[in-house]
Every structure is written in structure tokens, then in C-alpha cells.
Design brief:
Layout: H1 4-19, H2 23-37, E1 46-48, H3 60-69, E2 72-77, E3 86-89, E4 98-99, E5 107-108, E6 121-124, E7 128-130, E8 135-136, H4 142-148, E9 157-161, E10 167-168, E11 182-185, E12 188-191
Parallel strand pairs: 1-2, 1-6, 6-9, 7-10, 9-11
Antiparallel strand pairs: 2-3, 4-5, 7-8, 11-12
């Protein structure tokens, strides 16, 4: 069992590494990662992405390509007082329905809400990822609770996306944590476990 203080220490270290990436290096890495992620775009399939916060990887190139290829994009929607995420259609030009309160002011968009098991794939932001495919997030637990809801159901392909500096050999893991299926960074694609083909 890992302690909260140990997790917070690891989270701070990995966040600093991501923030320290030089601007030009970051731009090149983002272009490369977005190109690699395009391989997961399929016409008519439902793919969840995320709204980047702070120094998180930007997905602009992927979003533009998805619209051209006919992939249906979704964003996580946090229902007030709930941990389990809904997903709403990625907006074309609409304004946010509201801003989530708290330190992570993530814009929330309206639209027909679906649950994670209705997605074909999900690109998940992270602070860090280890050699086994376990991720470390911001600490809010939203993705953990949401992924846990898929344990006995058909699960979308779980894709972690970020920079190579976010990789570490081993992260503190809790009993409820689920491994990702794929990790994509500027150095390439790594697959974990048995779900390597998606839906």
C-alpha cells in the first residue's frame, strides 16, 4: 500500500519534468505524438480525448484529423458531486456549459451524455506511467472510478498519451488501479496486456 505522501512526491517530480520541457522540443514532441495517435482514428467510432490543462500534451493535430476522418470525439464531463465520468460530444464552436470548480478548471460542455462502455477508445491524460502500464493522474480519482466501472463490461481501448519524460520504472499502485492498454509518446508506441487491437 502506498502512502499519499509518497504518491504526492512522485507526482510533483513527474509534473516538474513535464513542465521543464523546452518549448521547441515540446512542439516537436507534440507533433510526433499527434501523428502516432492518428492511427487510432476510425470513421464512425467513438473516441474520448481530454481538454489539456497546464503542461499536459495538446491534442490539436489529432482533433483536426478526427474531424476529417469522421471519428466521433467526446470529452469527459464531471457531474457535480460525482466521481464517475460521463462523456459529451467534442464541441465545434460552442461555449462551455460551465467551468468545473476547484484547482482544475476544466471546461464542461453540454450534449448527449454517454458512459465509458459506449466508447471504442479513450485517450487518457496522465502525470506518469510505469513499465507495467499503470498511470498516475492528477489525484482526483475520476478516471480511476470510471475505469473501474468497466471491469465486468466491454472496455474501450485505454490509451495513455504524454511525453517520454513522464515514464518511470514503477509507480505506487492501489488494488483498484487498472493498467492502460497502450502508451504513446514521442519515442513511439508501447502496448501492455492482452487488449492490443481495440474494437
Amino acid at each position: 500500500m502506498s502512502t499519499p505522501s509518497k504518491k504526492n512526491e512522485v507526482r510533483r517530480r513527474l509534473r516538474k519534468a513535464r513542465q521543464a520541457i523546452p518549448t521547441l522540443e515540446r512542439q516537436r514532441a507534440e507533433q510526433r505524438i499527434n501523428r502516432l495517435l492518428k492511427g487510432y482514428l476510425k470513421r464512425g467510432k467513438r473516441l474520448a480525448v481530454y481538454w489539456p490543462i497546464g503542461s499536459e500534451l495538446r491534442l490539436d493535430g489529432l482533433v483536426a484529423a478526427a474531424r476529417k476522418r469522421g471519428t466521433l470525439l467526446y470529452l469527459p464531463y464531471i457531474q457535480p458531486g460525482k466521481q464517475r465520468l460521463w462523456f459529451t460530444p467534442y464541441p465545434t464552436n460552442s461555449r462551455p456549459e460551465r467551468q468545473r470548480r476547484g484547482k482544475l478548471r476544466i471546461p464542461q460542455f453540454s450534449g448527449q451524455k454517454i458512459r465509458i462502455h459506449n466508447l471504442h477508445g479513450i485517450i487518457i491524460p496522465l502525470i506518469g506511467i510505469d513499465s507495467r502500464g499503470y498511470r498516475m493522474g492528477q489525484g482526483g480519482g475520476f478516471y480511476d472510478v470510471t475505469l473501474a466501472a468497466t471491469r465486468h463490461r466491454l472496455c474501450p481501448l485505454k490509451i495513455g498519451a504524454g511525453f517520454a519524460c513522464q515514464q518511470t520504472e514503477r509507480l505506487p499502485v492501489e488494488a483498484h488501479d487498472m493498467r492502460l492498454d497502450v502508451w504513446v509518446c514521442e519515442t513511439g508506441i508501447r502496448r501492455f496486456g492482452q487488449n492490443q487491437t481495440g474494437r
